[in-house]
Records
---
Amino acid sequence: MGWVFMVVCVLCRPVPVTAGQRLEQKNVVYGGSSWLGHYPVWVGIKNGVFQQKGLEVQFQQFHASSGRMGSLVGDHLDFASTGSISAIALMAAGVKRFSIIGTQDSYATVEGIIAREGIPSVKALKGKKLAVTFASSAHVLVLDVLKTEGLDPKRDIHLINLKVSEMPAAFKSGEVDACAAWTPVFNRLLAMKRAHLLLNDTQFSLFKEFGLGPGPDVLVVRNAFARKCPNTTRAFIEGYFQSVSELKDQPEACARVLTGLTRLDLKDQVNVLKDITWYPLDAQSRLMVNPGSFVAGLQKLADFLFEKGQIDRSPRVRKWIDPNLLPGG
Amino acid sequence: MKSASERKTWQIFVSIGSFFAVILLWEVVCRMGLIEPIFLPAPSQVLTRAIRMIEQGAFFEHILASGRRVMVGFLLAGFLAIPFGIFLGTSPFFKAVFDPIISLLRPLPSMSWIPLSLLWLGITETQKYSIVFMGSFAPSLLYVIEATRNVDPVLIRAAQNLGAGRKDLIKEVILPAALPQIIAGLKVMLGIAWTCVIAAELVAARNGLGFMIMNGKEYFQTDTVLLGMLLISLTVMGIDGIFRIFERRVLPWIP
């Protein structure tokens, strides 16, 4: 009977869809969190998309992009999605161990500043306490809008460095007057009494110019892994963007799967999905091209971070962008 | 045969030599490119970072912010722990009463106090002082109790036979005898208080060495992280030196 079992196992095993290409490695480790940039991998795992490609994807949770990217360059992860600030910070540190291979989404309306009533504008934040996670995209947004309004972030406003998960409690207890947050905490804050949206990412100067948020999501790969396992890399990317298409075409069905990751109500989850613009595989070659608005926007973001003293030098970001790894690239 | 002073001078030279040898080796290894700067920056890179931060004015701001938090929390813990510890060390009944509470508090890491301190004190400096205080108080108290209980009972009995009351006994016998051990314990606790301040600066801080290390981590500035660590060590060493001067003045009979 043993041989029958073996034959059944062989027949039932997932077959890589990349025809004629043998996967060098079946297991892939991905660094994620509950942020929307990681939805494609979560959906891909739960809906069996990666399995169909012959891949076993392990979703490793991280609280911060820095931890995720640190693990990637430390050879503990193969792929990750990250807010581009962490990626730019690594570029500024001269790390060449990873490449940006795509950008999966634009999320301009699910990150922003939420204030309590009586604060109708950014100018009215003067002298008030604003909670923001330092070194995050929300921090960049805050620095940008304060600059636009002529406010000094050190003198005119009390910036409180707070983890995004701790903001609802601080806001509720009156410890802070406003919070710069992103989804899903953004949605929770908005739902609180006497809270209102002061502004979102669409007010970011680079969004007005390039359509870019303060820390656009990017998909990155560890270079050593991509070199060692090119077929596995392509299979993962195919599965990844297949999931992006599912998120775009079947938001309601995907929302049900995603609530397990984000703990949002189904209704809120559907609303979040509707606020996202997904960039499918065929859009990547247009976005990743240099010169192009995405690459130019990322460069401007790097220049902005340098100008604000957040990083030591402004790296040439195009050196880290490698669309050749994309299927058909 | 070398004299004691010659041996001491020789030891100092060896220590300085080994320190610079390690720094030199570290610099050479980094310059040869054997280790990427993101994993271990060269000492010269750390020095450059320090100079840059001094120029920006952030260097001393971070040291002073953390130093203030440590001093307030630690001194408060010490000032309360010394009399309370002596009281508990000389009263078996009250020690029995408080022992379970102290035993419960002692193993709690300072990090574990963050959620409650945030609820009780909010995002304030007091909350940061409280983290240092809670991390230092119970262990300091135990040091003082132990030091008090280790005083030679013959000395206590002799003083009692000579008619010393409880107040005189504490002031003239127990405190002078226990002070060396209390100070030794407080020195250990000072190091622990510096680990507490790192925990305190994880939440809602915009300055301090803990903030500097964590912010450096966020931007992958490993030189900033190393500089922060180095500054903590140097600051603790400096305060330890001040403690020794204090010790020599207050306890001149201790070699």
---
Amino acid sequence: MLNQNSTLKKITSHKLFMPILCLCVVLLVNILWTPNFFKITIKNGVLYGYIIDIINRASELVILAIGMTLVTASSGGQDISVGAVMAVAAAVCCQILSGGATSTNSFQNPLILAVLAALIVSVICGAFNGVLVAKLHIQPMVATLILFTAGRGIAQLITNGQITYVRVGVYKAIGSHIGSCPIPTPIFFAIITVIIAYLVLNKTALGLYVESVGVNGSASRLVGLNSTKIKFLTYVICGLLAGIAGIVNSGRIYSADANNIGLNLEMDAILAVALGGNLLSGGKFSLIGSVIGAYTIQALTTTLLAMKVPSDQLPVYKAIVVIIIVILQSPVFRKYMTARKKKKLQNKTTTTKAVKNKEMIEGEQV
Amino acid sequence: MMSASVVKQRKSLNSSTFLLVVTIALFAAMYIAGMIIFSEKGFANPQMFLNLFISNAGLIVIGCGMTLVMITGGIDISVGSVTALVCMSAAYAMEKKGMNAYTAVLISLAIGIGFGLVQGYLVAFLDIQPFIVSLAGMFFGRGMTSIISTDMISIKNTTFLGWANFRIYMPFGTYNRRGIYQAAYIYPTVIIALLVVLILAIVLKYTKFGRSLYAIGGNQQSALMMGLNVRRTKMEAYVLDGFLAGLGGFLFCLNSCAGFVEQAKGLEMDAIAAAVIGGTLLSGGVGTVVGTLFGVLITGTITSLITTQGTLSSWWVRITLSALLCFFIVLQAIIASAKKKGQAAS
């Protein structure tokens, strides 16, 4: 009995328990709502179904969530410019591929050149944020606010205010599927990014450094870590990942739409980090938690859309979820809960004492 | 020792007034440059100057609210969607539900205060980061706007249009090309906006509430030790900010006479930019509403310079504004670090 209790406690106190529970709750609701939820069929040579749709559509969010997790862990703030950086990367990529025209049926420049240029631009965006946050000590959200607004303007500047279409099979493949492979390509991008990030953070000391800087920047400087450099690096990585997400998203619609690529995705990425059980004030982080969080959000979005909620009303529900999560995470609420637990425990001990006393008195009487 | 502390005090005073002086000088320089470059396009016309106030009356009020929360060290990025929600609700109430214009005013203010109460509670009493709270508020407001209506509702209520088109003529004016005298005019919204600035400037400078705001923004711990009720004051600041967002939203509505989902998109950015350009420190403790007024005038001047120029596209407004914001944020960071170094040296 006691053993069972302790294993249960072990499971519930695991840091991934809440994120997985959230995902399960969303999936459970779906099973009750849509009977054919887990049905997977093959349509036009591609896997098709709700589950596949969720995993596929969440790819960009997963990639963004990794970057956002690192930024949050190292600086205790969030990068709200990721959506805009996605738009910029997509604009650069498509504009180079089309050679400046608004629509093209063949690559004007090699694909690898366009992708590299887009990634370099997104790294520069990340570095810009990084300098403001790490070097000039500006609050992360305010520093990234600059690119948050300027980004879409810059993307429009690059595409001359138009939507640039790249109607080439290879480019479309980035967002749909390669040849006869039945699994959508974005899923591969997400998996590869997660694996690389996981290996880099767990097989090298970088993950430890990021946590250390996030917990106490000046203390880790005294230990000999260059906290400025590590913070800067996380913003650069975040920018790079936003660039990759931008290219994937642009491959999906084989165009660069400056106004709509990555719109409101920064909110989802922050939400993914929070849902993953990470503190938004920095410090220890769980990469896998954020990835699960990202899938949960996409599951939630797909569910709401399946329930015929119009897409422009989605933010209301997401905002409510965010507020509930941050309230649950807030130090005041946690203190309240531990105080309650203590009180409960105290009550329990006093009642057991009372019962014992009563028994003793009764025993004496007998 | 004495002299050192005196010097230090003067230096810190200088840095905050320095930012205000930079702002006013920048505005004057930009406007005069505009007058010289676009003189034949009517930039020198006094009406053009008054138009800056007319088209930005709502933003001035919203920017003042933003300044209050920024002085406490917080931020509110929900104001743009609160404005959209206010416009949509007012339009919906008057056009679809047949309510009168006075009820629409009350609804607008109630929406603003509601946002202020909820966000203030979460920030002040649950210690949640203001940015996250207002980010959620921003998405909530925008989503609610589209729940009310996804179509544009234009306002045709006669009382409302009467307010919106009531011109107050100025004692000065210009002669147009045909030689007919045209008196310059403003709308009542301008007077409301300037009154808000005046009242808040007095409140910030001469009341206990105003001084408490600066104390909290300067150092929350010492404000607490001084015996200030930090949570309550913060809450009041957010409620006042919400009220001003509601009022500003209504002034915005008087200007546009319509409600639609995409309305006031990015307004929160304009309000923050105005406050920052006006010398309000993002880290709290420093800022004036007069500075914010000039910040709004600068953002307004950029917009009208770019629209008067005619060939530049609209996205240049965003890019220039962000560049200017970047410049001021970096300037503030440099001043802050110089101050820190100065303190360490003394």
